[in-house]
Amino acid sequence: MIQPKISVIIPVYNTEDYLEETLMSLLNQTMIDDIEVLMIDDGSSDDSRYIIEKYALDYDNFHAYHKENEGQGVARNYAIQFANGEYIHFFDSDDYLPPNAYETLYNHALKNKDDMIIFNVSYFSFYNNWENLLFKNSYNKLSENIHSSCLVDYLDMLWDTITCNKLYKKEFLEKNNIRFLDKKIFFEDIPFSLETYLLADSITVIKEKLYFWRYRNNRSSTTQHDLSVRNFKDRLDILEVCLNLFDKYHVSDDIRNFEYIKWLNHDLKFFLKRIDNYPKDYYEKLLDEIYDIIRRIPSNLFDDLTSYQQVLYNMILDRRYDEVIEFAPLENELYENPAIPQFLDDKYWKYFDFIRDAKSQDLNVEVVNVSNDESNLFLEFEGHIYFLPSQTKYDVVAELVDGNEIYGVEVNKSDNIIVIPFERIKNRNDVKVKVTYKFDDFTKEAYLKIKKRKLVSFDDFDVEINFRKSFHVYLNYKEKHDNKIEVADISFNSKEFVFKATSQNRINRMILENNITFEKFSYPVDYIDESTFEFIIPYEDILSSVIKKWELNCEDSLNNVFLSKKYHFFTKNYEIKFSNVKHKIYISNQIYDPIESLKQLNDKNDKLNMEKKKLKKENSSLKKDIEKYNSRKVVKLVDKFKL
Predict the structure, then answer these.
(1) How many angstroms separate the CA atoms of 180 and 193, rounded?
(2) Cα–Cα distance for residue pair 18/48, rounded to 1 Å
(3) Category of 353 on φ-ψ map: left (φ > 0), alpha (ψ -120 to 50) or beta
(4) Helices marked H in 207-265
(5) Which helix (H) or strand (E) holds 117?
(6) What pLDDT, in 10s, does the model give residues 66-91?
(7) Sign of the C-alpha dihedral, residues 160, 165, 111, 141?
(8) How far is the C-alpha of 552 from the C-alpha of 588, rounded, in Å?
(9) What is the DSSP letter of 431?
(10) C-alpha dihedral over 306, 308, 309, 313, to 10 degrees?
(11) Nearest to 449 by CA among 463, 468, 476, 431
């Protein structure tokens, strides 16, 4: 193999449930031949160590290494010595990259010769994907990518503290001898990221989401152990390391203060509000460490914090630890019921200003019920602004937003119902609903949200109440057509699916939409005769999403698409299923392991056999009971006749 362009370093520790999907996302990369994958088994006790050996045997550019368990940072440091690429990517063993990720990143790196490329992140689970606060704060202000920049030009990048969404020039890391802490500690990414930000002369920031960070449903990930004392302690130790970096590199006040505000709003508050979940024996030591951190933060930075935060941090500075323990868990309660807690010393009352707090909060408005009559759609909603009493009366305004056009609609304020005439949305698609709350001298606005799709159906039309990113409501008016689309055959050649179908009325295109991410692809149809047509879906389109659950439908003939039968296809690593679900075609694409499937089948057969044995035993016992009963009955009858 020629010198790789990118060395991918993956520390692996007991992630057998996710590891293959992660490695497959690398094999699906459009520039797979230009990367090397260094898989470091950090003392795993599950089958992860065997999985990486399998991939190392099957693929020349995958390499497996094994070492004792010393933590993720140490494993990454260990792997750097074997890296031959121009750039290094630290990739977590349960996460995912879309197929074009490395090609996109390397093209940016090649163009600008940057020390590092940072890129946006999406959280995902098996059922959902969403934005994390850290990455909202880092990337949502960007209208476009930033090229050849540095930290002082865009301080918001400091919110992004992980390393797995960054491509580092190896020469940059070596020249500055930047390494992870050489010990087993959580949150080792934070000082590494900070040091690279401080020393990089050229950084490109990419707004596009090119890294998918898995939220494990079993909460086994380090970042999900929010009730672990060790996590709390390690976070404080990491912040001390960052303070030392500020001194080492003589960091400016602008950078220091931005980082301090982040700590006050996120790093420290995150754990403090959960402090009553930790053992009491740790309280004083943890709070002393927090005191040592916040006493070095300029006091004027507290002025823009919420009332809750100002009280909390001032109590710590006063070392009123008993009150801290009682007050710290109350943030969520203050959101809903803003009132000064009675146990507080009156010296802290001056920090409370709930109106100021309310102005800093986003409005969240959600649909709680959908109904209709012959002419109108009724959306019952609820919502309020945090830090204002729940009984607060607002002046509420609702508007329909269709691209650049905005239409006012009636709001029944007594019942919190938005009234939308069907005529207003007739023949319109993707109409959003904006709600504005007015209170005294400020207003808040937000798009209406819904957590479950709804359908209002009439003889001539349907109104689909859908949601996409951030659960925003989308209203779609669909006139009904007397049509039925039936897919009679699907063939697959490992690169594309060819569909043959029939329809009563002519259509223009078929639509593939992801159930979770709402990605959408459109495919033109090619008619063979008056009612029969073909269309092609490249397999790459299905592989492109981290969550591979898709629906095949037709916008010209909504919810009238059927399969003549179920279809299953297999590649070396995936099983693709096509089935009928609610008048649409459902497509799933899941990792397929023949050995694991056989094991599951054997387990299922063993379970069935055990059930059979159990039933047989129960039947035998029942048979004996019946025989005993009949025997007693016969004896009684004989005795009766004897009498």
Answers:
(1) 9
(2) 9
(3) beta
(4) 229-248, 253-262
(5) strand 116-124
(6) 999 999 999 999 999 999 999 999 99
(7) negative
(8) 11
(9) B
(10) 140
(11) 468
